[in-house]
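Below is one record:
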Amino acid sequence: MAAPFKLFSVHQAALIVNGKENKNGLEDRGIFSVVTDSQKAGKGSLFVALKGDRTDGHNYISQAVTNGAVCILADKKKAGLYQNIGLEEKAAVIEVDDPLASLQKLAEEYVSRFPSLTRIGVTGSSGKTTTKEILASIFSLSDPTVFTQGNLNSEIGLPLSMFSIRPEHKYGIFEMGINFKGEMDILVRIFKPEYAVITNIGTAHSGPLGGEEGIVKEKSRIFSYFSNKSIGFLPENDRHLTYLKSSCGGRYVLFGESCNSIITDAEDVGLDGWYVKCGGEKVRFSLPGRYNLSNLYAAAAVAEHFAIDPVIMRRGIESVSALPGRSRIIRSEITIIEDSYNANEDSLAKAIEYLSDLSWEGRKIAVLGSMKELGAASEKIHAGVGEKVLKAGIDAVFFYGEEMRTAYMVLREKEHAFESFYFTDYSKLENNVSEYVAAGDIVLLKGSRSMKLERLVDTLSDREALKGYV
């Protein structure tokens, strides 16, 4: 078994963050992992005590040490929460002004140790995680590749992901998501992507980011550390394409149906995804919907730029499978399209369009949860959902959440006879959906993450159908 990889010594970490360390003889101890969850701490961990919306990591320092943490990165203003709990002989403490900023500084310094790593960043309003997964599937078959696990793409998640980089890695593919102004600047300072994919520009988090114009400006900050060799991979039909081209200094490659030379002849096979030709040979891509095909075009454009062998590309494409909450198809007496990890105006519209266009003998039912963080545009955007549902030709819709009341009222006003239902209580939603659906129906679950519509999966599916998913 290979020895664990040492990230820093305790003393090195203290120097990097300019923190005050207690001198208890542990300065030379090695740090082998960095965590913000005390339950994930293990032997040789650095536990970063962060204050969240609901809890404060400083209250869990003792648990982290019990689990093996050798060092604690703590807020010096909160010494009262961690002093006098018997840490002295078990773990070092590095006191700083801002533990989150210090975590980011550690990650930035760590990435700088790997100048030969080809750094590829992925952002966009939707499709980031799927595009990253396709890229990882392809590139990992070609060369040693490190990539974001799950969706650790934020000001906390990205720096934690950086510590998975190792000297043998040739490519680093990391997802970069933003929720507030200035967050992309933090992410690019840490990772400094040389190549960047923007999947699309939509309305995700439009409230905190200042509307769609604010979104495109913030997303474009991913190009901030571009050099003369850098390339931006941009969607051919995005309405902000001119701005995006300018933002990456005119160094770009377009992706999409009309300009992708390696992926051709896409054939829609419904819930089974797509057949496409890659390098002239037919291959199946299992993720359904035209929006997922766009993600494939993006990943393929990057792979083609790096001259990945088409044989490897085909193997990578064939091995891609849906993640929970992202275009996951669960087949039983009731078929479920679980796309409930997030939702914004564009992704919800695409999901409704996909359900509408799908060839299906039974009833088509949508369960639509509220879209969050839309700011002043929320009411207008949710009203538009009612319009889209009315035109979609589906059989019934269940709206869930305060914001979706607007969609429900618009739909009822325009077509009172349409089978539509509205709930703010989850248990009532679950009971009514369960009573309504029948064998042969297909049900779309789509809503923002906080709506937790994935809870309906267990209710509507038999255990056999869920094998491999839970």
